Amino acid sequence: MAKRLLDIVGSLAGLLLLALPGALVALAIRVDSPGPVFFRQERVGRHGRPFRIHKFRTMRVDAERAGQLTVGDDQRVTRVGRFLRAHRLDELPQLIDVLRGDMSLVGPRPEVPRYVARYPAGLRERVLAVRPGITDPASLAFRGEAAQLAAAADPEREYVEVILPRKLALAADYADRASLWTDLALIWRTLGVLWTR
How open is the CA angle 5-84-90, to the nearest 5 degrees? Predict the structure, then answer.
């Protein structure tokens, strides 16, 4: 109950505070490249329920045809998109998903169905027992994921066999220990990372 209250208050406050900057970002996206302001994609939520996540669009509209992983200096990313990704501003619309109850401020990052299908049964149950979040220990630990994938001979294999298992272990550990205090600590750490950027 306390976690959901934090989510509602935090997402409402964030949406109000970021309304003007968000409008400027939306305008920059529209001026920079043709297509919608928001990118929506199916992700797997709590207890395996699918939902459509909101992000500011950072790629060309046809980007997903070339795959769902972003690798290094991906040429599908727009000029404005590079700035948004560098500062994690593309994630701000997920406050809408938090307010709707599909996500939480803190929780395991929601994956696309094709990768969730690879979760080992025991880890799948633990990770999907909580709402997915905007930030979590794994997203902080793998801030350089795109560069790591770019350095790999086979980015898809690197993600599935190396990165995903480590993310799942961190996500399961978070799900087992989640509390209001761990969430507040992770929010503080995330704000610190964004500030230093």
Answer: 35
CB-facing half-sphere around the CA of 98: CA atoms within 13 A: 27
Short-list 81, 82, 103, CA closest to 10: 103
Q: How far apart are CA 110 and CA 92, in angstroms?
A: 15
Q: Name the residue type at position 146.
A: A
Range scoring the smallest mean pLDDT among 77-81, 85-89, 184-188: 85-89
- Give the start-end residues of each E strand in 47-180: 50-56, 104-106, 133-135
Chain-centroid distance, C-alpha 73: 19
**Can you read off the two tokens belonging to residue 18?**
């970021």
Distances 71 to 28, 64, 121, 139 between C-alpha atoms, Å: 24, 13, 28, 16
Contact 52, 113 (CB under 8 A): no
Residue 129: exposure state from Cβ atoms within 10 A (0-12, 13-18, ≥19): middle
- Residues contacting 91, CB < 8 A, separation 6+: 55, 134
Could you tell me the pTM of the whole model? 0.88
